[in-house]
């Protein structure tokens, strides 16, 4: 299984490492042509406005939507979650608009710009160590979006079929279980395709 990490801006190397620990072959993606060889794609944390701008500039908006239309899984973390959402609080325009949810940026307040927590995630047997850095939260989920975890009553992980999003940085600890969960989604998607 080959998984790409969108490498326009943000925390790329750490995601590559976590994916490799979870057993994937990986590649840092800088050109749209590279998407063809991939079974799944991670959109990392960083700064969503910058990532969105660079995605538009280099043709990734259409290409990643097509990738998703083929049923290939996407995993957005932190800024990547914002890029996947179809509504961003206080902004007129969204980016990929693939997940039916409204997100709020920098939602945990100034004094809590950065913190760690252990989260229970639906479908995972052990709590996950999560690092939040100027994190967004999911304010509302709509059709087809399942909530996988909450932190103090706020939604921080969600899944919509082959799309996964979390508001924290799962790649900054040695716990690669959410990456392993994503790889399972990729395996399922590939198996579903093969059975057509
Ligand atoms: N605050 C950033 C944004 O709005 C996201 C932060 C992160 O990815 N760590 O894009």
Automatic annotation (TrEMBL):
<dbReference type="GO" id="GO:0005829">
    <property type="term" value="C:cytosol"/>
</dbReference>
<dbReference type="GO" id="GO:0036381">
    <property type="term" value="F:pyridoxal 5'-phosphate synthase (glutamine hydrolysing) activity"/>
</dbReference>
<feature type="binding site">
    <location>
        <begin position="133"/>
        <end position="134"/>
    </location>
    <ligand>
        <name>L-glutamine</name>
    </ligand>
</feature>
<feature type="binding site">
    <location>
        <begin position="46"/>
        <end position="48"/>
    </location>
    <ligand>
        <name>L-glutamine</name>
    </ligand>
</feature>
<comment type="function">
    <text>Catalyzes the hydrolysis of glutamine to glutamate and ammonia as part of the biosynthesis of pyridoxal 5'-phosphate. The resulting ammonia molecule is channeled to the active site of PdxS.</text>
</comment>
<keyword id="KW-0456">Lyase</keyword>
<keyword id="KW-0315">Glutamine amidotransferase</keyword>
<dbReference type="GO" id="GO:1903600">
    <property type="term" value="C:glutaminase complex"/>
</dbReference>
<keyword id="KW-0663">Pyridoxal phosphate</keyword>
<protein>
    <recommendedName>
        <fullName>Pyridoxal 5'-phosphate synthase subunit PdxT</fullName>
        <ecNumber>4.3.3.6</ecNumber>
        <ecNumber>3.5.1.2</ecNumber>
    </recommendedName>
</protein>
<dbReference type="GO" id="GO:0006543">
    <property type="term" value="P:L-glutamine catabolic process"/>
</dbReference>
<dbReference type="InterPro" id="IPR021196">
    <property type="entry name" value="PdxT/SNO_CS"/>
</dbReference>
<feature type="active site" description="Charge relay system">
    <location>
        <position position="171"/>
    </location>
</feature>
<keyword id="KW-0378">Hydrolase</keyword>
<dbReference type="GO" id="GO:0004359">
    <property type="term" value="F:glutaminase activity"/>
</dbReference>
<dbReference type="GO" id="GO:0042823">
    <property type="term" value="P:pyridoxal phosphate biosynthetic process"/>
</dbReference>
<comment type="pathway">
    <text>Cofactor biosynthesis; pyridoxal 5'-phosphate biosynthesis.</text>
</comment>
<feature type="binding site">
    <location>
        <position position="105"/>
    </location>
    <ligand>
        <name>L-glutamine</name>
    </ligand>
</feature>
<dbReference type="InterPro" id="IPR002161">
    <property type="entry name" value="PdxT/SNO"/>
</dbReference>
<dbReference type="InterPro" id="IPR029062">
    <property type="entry name" value="Class_I_gatase-like"/>
</dbReference>
<comment type="subunit">
    <text>In the presence of PdxS, forms a dodecamer of heterodimers. Only shows activity in the heterodimer.</text>
</comment>
<dbReference type="Pfam" id="PF01174">
    <property type="entry name" value="SNO"/>
</dbReference>
<comment type="similarity">
    <text>Belongs to the glutaminase PdxT/SNO family.</text>
</comment>
<feature type="active site" description="Nucleophile">
    <location>
        <position position="78"/>
    </location>
</feature>
<dbReference type="GO" id="GO:0008614">
    <property type="term" value="P:pyridoxine metabolic process"/>
</dbReference>
<feature type="active site" description="Charge relay system">
    <location>
        <position position="169"/>
    </location>
</feature>
């Amino acid at each position: 299984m080959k998984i790409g990490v969108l490498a326009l801006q943000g925390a790329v190397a750490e995601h590559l490492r976590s994916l490799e620990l979870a057993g994937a072959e990986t590649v840092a993606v800088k050109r749209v042509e590279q998407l063809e060889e991939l079974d799944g794609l991670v959109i990392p944390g960083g700064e969503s406005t910058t990532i969105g701008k660079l995605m538009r500039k280099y043709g990734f908006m259409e290409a990643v939507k097509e990738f998703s239309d083929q049923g290939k899984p996407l995993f957005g973390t932190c800024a990547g979650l914002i890029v996947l959402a179809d509504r961003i609080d206080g902004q007129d325009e969204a980016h990929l608009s693939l997940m039916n949810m409204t997100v709020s940026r920098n939602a945990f307040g100034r004094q809590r710009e950065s913190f760690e927590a252990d989260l229970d995630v639906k479908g995972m047997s052990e709590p996950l160590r999560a690092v939040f850095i100027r994190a967004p939260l999911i304010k509302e989920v709509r059709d087809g979006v399942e909530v996988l975890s909450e932190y103090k009553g706020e939604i921080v992980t969600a899944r919509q079929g082959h799309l996964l999003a979390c508001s924290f940085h799962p790649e900054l600890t040695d716990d690669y279980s959410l990456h392993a969960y994503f790889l399972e989604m990729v395996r399922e998607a590939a198996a579903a395709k093969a059975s057509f």
